[in-house]
Amino acid sequence: MTMNLNRTAKSSRVDEIIKLMKNRNIRGLTRAISIVENNEEAKKYLLSDAFRRGLNSCLTVGFTGAPGTGKSTLINSVIKRYRQAGKTVGVIAVDPTSPYSGGAVLGDRIRMQEHNPDSGVYIRSLASRKALGGLSEATKFALYLYKAFVFDVIIVETLGVGQDEIDVAKYVDVTVVLLVPGYGDTIQMAKAGIMEIADVFVINKSDRPGADLLKKQILNILYMKPENERPPVVNTIADRNEGIDEVIEAIELVKHRSASDTEERYHRRIAEEIRSSVLSQLTREADRHLDKMVKRVMNASITPIEASEEILRLLCNRQEDPIDPDL
Ligand SMILES: Nc1nc2c(ncn2[C@@H]2O[C@H](COP(=O)(O)OP(=O)(O)O)[C@@H](O)[C@H]2O)c(=O)[nH]1
Ligand SMILES: [Mg+2]
Q1: Which of 27, 28, 56, 223 has a CA that sits 20 to 30 A from residue 232's CA?
Q2: pLDDT digits 0-9 by tens, 110-136
Q3: Cα–Cα distance for residue pair 158/109, rounded to 1 Å
Q4: For the whole prediction, is pTM greater than 0.70?
């Protein structure tokens, strides 16, 4: 009885959020993101609804680069330009310290600077607590929700360290990589696999010495790519609003480059989503057996490999409706 009541309460809450989202009431988006962040059970209904209704016509752009390269500053300038063109903009800031508000208080995770939702801009930073699947999964889910809410442009600012950048690049249409002169960046990015994910290179802080040299180095590396696949390289001085139109033009150019590429990317993205969903569910299920198995390995009754095989057997036997492999 109690169970049923709970379930009814839960689904009416989900329905209400979905309704708010459909009416483009920002409270719906805010609540949906909180549910996803807290990893509540209701998240799967919200995400499935968001995926069904989400528009692929929203342009999604990731801004990535080491901390301090000027991502937040550049994004602020880009937002202003898009607003001047009458476009709505949603921003997902994975870095909670991003200065999108003059008076931003750390811990106040909903920030709207000179931008606020009534003005067509919504900015939210994601909690950086460790979630299953990492921050990139939270980002991906937030992207679903933003697309369902519908913005003309959706911007993701990543933290600028580690694997998350490369993961996030899979979920956005265009990845903009920021570099600044004088840090030996070319070597760093070659190491981090950044060259592969960049659709546009921005050399920010071009007021500093070495900007031209860095541009030359990047162009040299890109020279090997066919011209129609070569990422544009743009110089900017973000805190003076210089080069912003060129950044937007470069983003548009990449977005419209080739329909077949877009199709292929979409295919890869869906494959990745299915796989990561399968893996995270499997991980969750497998974790339930871990303690028991660790003990058995420590008692020397089985080896870790045998333990993993036994867990897989347990998971397979749980399956109630085996799917016909020929289907
Ligand atoms: N000299 C110079 N400083 C800049 C430029 N763009 C941003 N900054 C400064 O660089 C610092 C880091 O910028 P921020 O946008 O927070 O970097 P993020 O960590 O990549 O988001 C701030 O103090 C900015 O004012 C630029 O083009 N030239
Ligand atoms: Mg920032």
Answers
A1: 56
A2: 343 445 555 688 888 886 555 445 667
A3: 15
A4: yes
